Amino acid sequence: MSNKISILIVEDEFMIAEDIAMRLEDMGYEVAEKIDNVDEAIAWLDENKVDIMLVDVNLRGTKTGIDLGRIVNERFHIPFVFLTSLANHEVVEMARQVNPAAYLLKPFNDRQVKVSVDMALQNFYGDSGRQSGEPNEVNDEKEEYVLKMPGCLFLRKSTSYHKVNFSDILWLEAESNYTTIHTKTEKYTYSVVLKSFEEKLLPKDFMRVHRSFIVNLSNVTGFEGNTLFIDKTRIPVTRAAQEKVFKHFRVI
């Protein structure tokens, strides 16, 4: 499974679709498909999964991007960014009724594309929940570095989000007010206390085994005494957590 954030583009102007696809791929995103009408987009979504969509508001035909947005909300629950060359009040009001996660105005540049995708991810998957409104830019003071969606986290590193499946997370380690997420391929360190992950982000197969450690029990490779092993890494288990932890490995 790819760890890139996958994007579906629904745009009926070929050159614009190709342009935005190239920009997204250069930024490290995966363009899952480019589709030019609502019916084909729905058929594709019935058979495939995607993390986020870019949808032209003014698709030609009997069904518009706003119609598609309404269907996505009802059936697929995926964040979408509305593409539009019209910034007038009437269009914005119509679009707001289907609660897009962000807007992208044509013509656009690389930074505007990146901001709109990041904003959509933060608005939809972040702690603040879904938002809508007129086009605006991400406020750095409110920027979220860890976003949750079913089965994975979006972890921010440098200027991009990386998609990390829960199964690829090995353990989380706290040091003062910082937490490092150790995955099978990389490490991500954030100025967030470990308790925040324990309370908000992690599914049932993650367990707090020590004041400084949360482990993914499915990735434990061995144990001895009060120590868990994940490959060559030794992780201590407190006395208070031992019964609960080792019950997980008990053979009946």
Automatic annotation (TrEMBL):
The keyword Ribonucleoprotein does not apply. PANTHER family: STAGE 0 SPORULATION PROTEIN A HOMOLOG (PTHR37299:SF1), TRANSCRIPTIONAL REGULATOR-RELATED (PTHR37299). It comes from the Bacteria. InterPro entries: CheY-like_superfamily, LytR-like, LytTR_DNA-bd_dom, Sig_transdc_resp-reg_receiver. The modification 4-aspartylphosphate is found at residue 56. The keyword Phosphoprotein applies. Keywords: Phosphoprotein. It comes from Marinilabilia salmonicolor. This is LytTR family two component transcriptional regulator. One of its GO terms (molecular function) is phosphorelay response regulator activity. Pfam families: LytTR, Response_reg. Residues 6-121 form the Response regulatory domain. Residues 153-251 form the HTH LytTR-type domain.
